[in-house]
Amino acid sequence: RGELARNYIELRANQAQLDIVRANAESQRQTVDVTRERYRLGLTSYLDVSQADAQRATTEANIPVLTAAIAQSIHRLGILVGREPAALKAELSTSTPLPADTGLSAVGLPAELLARRPDLRAAERSLAAASADIGVATANLYPKFDLTLGLGLQSNQASRFAEQSSRYWSIVPGLSLPVFNGGRTQAQIASRQAIFDEALARYRAAYHSALEDVENALTNYYAERSRQVALAEAVSANLQAVSLARDRYRRGLTTFLDVLTAEGSLFNAQRNLSQSRANLLTDLVALHKALGGGWRSTADPQADNTGPGSLASGLQAYPAR
Question: What is the CATH number of domain 2-121+199-315?
Fold first, then answer.
């Protein structure tokens, strides 16, 4: 499930990147037209035209790379749901925004959620089995009384065996005293105690590793959220910078270098913001995995937040076949 979610996020992230590339390439083509017009009017050199066209071509060079990555993601998703590589092409080829980050409503995630992790459950079962073995070995220290049940015949004629009156039952008591077995029972207890101690150490290690996974996932998530806020501000500022630079260039108040710099900064900021949104969802998938399969909001116990935002419902549209 985690691999399916990560590949779905990667697909939508690449589609978002492709949309950004195409939008910037179109904007840069308009800038090329502006430089050509200024050159035609004798207001600038052909250097501006060449620089503008070079930036446009560099931006468009990302299109084939992203197109191939999108196709590969669709193929991988098809395989992951048990179908042919191209089976989901029609459903997934259209660009769709990344699922929204709904945030973590549960500030303190209950520790008992970790109990759903397969590694912890396996370690816990091993620990319980080792504990039970100690109890069995300890019970062997005590005397055991055995009652042997015997069946006999009162008649010498086998033909009368079927008759109730010809049979008798006998009970022979027996006593086992393990205290005289040369210390074998004590050795068994010591051996199984050692096995228990080893199982306990493995369980503690698995539990601490699970806690580390959760803490790391939460740390990455909140760090990426903070980064995303800053990137959104950068995109907004760069949009304004591009608008101002183009306007000043048209009026001959600045060089074309300012336009190139502003457009390049905007392009990078938009791509970084888009990737940050994908990273945030990937961090939620990592948290989902670290907790052994999602969590429930403390504000709404009936709401099952089993995945990043609406990602889970998006994936359910493509069941294995």
Answer: 1.20.1600.10
